[in-house]
Write a structure and sequence with these properties.
Length: 119
Amino acid sequence: MEKIYRLMLEDILPTVAGGDAGMQALIRQSGEGLQLNGDRLIFTLPALFSFTVAHHNQAVDDKERVTDSMENYSCFRELLFQHPPNATLARFGLQVGIELADLNPDLIVYKLLRLDDGS
């Protein structure tokens, strides 16, 4: 799951924030839980995980594919809580904030922000 975690933090989120039209088009097609509000990414963890797994699986051969399963998602979520993403995202001038809080971590809606934005 570390590979998926790094792909999300070091490739997908910075690419979306950088305004990459191809990545933004994929997000617009992804459906509920992952959307663009203007140029700001709004997401839930399960939706971001599924999107990242699908993106990864398109770029690798069959033996390197990752299953979009509850077990793998749980490992991914555990990595997020053990290694908060904002330290890594800061290198890209980004941070993750909460758009809509919920007691269930899978229902929290997050937003991707530029460090100089903060709102």
